[in-house]
Amino acid sequence: MGSGGVGKSALTVRFINASYLEWYDPTIEDSYRKQFTVDGQACLLEILDTAGIEQYLTLNDLFIRESQGFVLVFSLTQRDTFREILKLRDTIYSIKSTFDIPIVIVGNKSDLGDEREVETSEGEKLAERWGVRYFETSARTDTNVWLVFEEIVRKIRSSDHYKRP
Ligand code: GDP
Ligand code: MG
Asked: Whose CA is nearest to atom 18 of ligand 1?
């Protein structure tokens, strides 16, 4: 989840297809499945690439309820998108009836060095406050994208609500 244009679809496509799409329809909300191995254990991850919480509030309500983990993405080049993830976390907490929620924070577009508006230390500070991991990624240059999805799988596995098959 995250503001429009931060690169949610680009990160998802990079992870699923190992490719980069310069343009992806911002209104498409779709789900993808990928089987991979984390810490020697196979997993099947289903990723819902959301397309704006405002437009699809009721749908997102349901998706939040049913999702086991959340990747909160902002753009390192747009400070307002960083603020937005604070709101998203509140929304998730208000819909989930637990505080044991697997979350990862992602600052995307790390390749756009001169356009940076959010410092690494700010992302790290927020992550420390929330007790979660923070990654700076680039879907364009394929930097740290896998780490994000591996980490969310680890968090889901270690959460109380994860039921082993
Ligand atoms: P979404 O609305 O969050 O799904 O964002 P998109 O994935 O559609 O990306 C929005 C725009 O940002 C597109 O033009 C992408 O090409 C661009 N973009 C996404 N990720 C990156 C990145 O890591 N680096 C750069 N430079 N541009 C990116
Ligand atoms: Mg998108």
From this structure: 7
